[in-house]
Amino acid sequence: MKKYTLSVIGLLMFFLIGCQPNANRSQSSANNHTNPKDSTHTILSIDYAKGFSIQYVPGGCLVTIQDPQSDQGAIYHFALVGEENDEKQISEEYTVIHTPIKSAICMTSLQLSNFIKLGELEKVVGITSTRHLFNQQMQQQLKEGKTRKIGIEGNFDNEVIMALNPDIILISPFKRGGYDVLTEVRIPLIPHLGYKEMTPLGQAEWIKFIGLLTGEEKKADSLFVHIEKRYNELKELTAHVKKRPVVFSGELHNGNWYAVGGQSFLAQLFRDAGADYFLKDNPSSGGVTLDFEKVYSQADNADFWRLLNSYSGTYSYEVVKQSDGRYTDFKAYKEKRIIYCNLREKPYYENMPTEPEVLLEDFVKAFHPELLPDYQPKYYELLK
Fold this sequence. Notes:
Blueprint (H helix, E strand, L loop, with lengths): L7 H9 L8 H7 L2 E2 L2 E5 L9 E6 L2 E7 L8 E7 L13 E4 L5 E3 L2 H10 L5 E4 L8 H9 L3 E2 L1 E2 L2 E2 L1 H7 L3 E4 L17 E3 L8 H5 L2 H8 L2 H21 L8 E4 L1 E3 L2 E5 L4 H8 L3 E2 L9 E4 L1 H8 L4 E6 L7 H7 L7 H4 L3 E5 L5 H4 L4 H12 L13 E2 L2
Parallel strand pairs: 5-6, 7-8, 7-12, 8-9, 12-13, 14-17, 14-19, 19-20
Antiparallel strand pairs: 1-2, 3-4, 4-5, 10-11, 15-16, 16-18, 20-21
Helix pairs in contact: 7-8, 8-14
């Protein structure tokens, strides 16, 4: 993708004209701001996501992407402009992306979830895996060859990618990687760092970024307004609960217990659902590895146990017991308070990133059922 040097006057215009990316959210939505250069495009404000920011300029916008968990990592700059706009007005530090894009490759289910929510799946021409894929439209596109599998991280099929020739490839640069080889195909690689956001609404707000790429800013903004409103309603519902149950998460794999830290996305969900996470004082925002004794010392008397796995058949307390007899010593096991989601049965990964309000509702139902007496859980429910 070609890059050009911006004149001094043009550079000043780029950064003096446009909207404030962190402007008041409700005010932006209420007034339905639009770009004066193009009345069909909604100007978006970013209020929860820490991994990207938007600067509006004449003819498009500048997007800056960086690790939401660190200010020390790489920073990526993209200029999203219409096909008719002059690239000569764009600084050389920005990679030009002509929007709306016509085709994209998604590396993760989280990225795919944004296209599903926006109704833009026809633009997804390549994915890495079909494991835990429920979406019927995507399955049909794969069957008809409109979407193709491109391999997995670290072992991509460059010939397939070049044949697809997408406008962009969305990547997750802090995961397993293997993206260096993709630079050879000369297709813009755009980091999608929603998975590193530490709040549910921050992760969901990445739908606005995909809205910018696909030309569906207005729809993305409208969808997020609904997500945000319902999420905050539920959060307010649990704000004054008298008893906050303790919940722990994870299970043993090859002798190690894998959980997430106290500053993670999941820990925030538990807090907002009116519960205390057993590692709430842990400073990590990512995964943590513990031994059984450490977990038991902190969670033996916890009220709930959250489990997420892929099990063929009917998952039950007997199955949990057979996995490791020590599990039966947990209070949550004894009192049958395991909150469970089976990845073989629920479209968790492809839908959950854009449905944090639904996930929160599931947990509120489990922790405080009296607050949502008529609600039927979608992902997590008490194991029978």
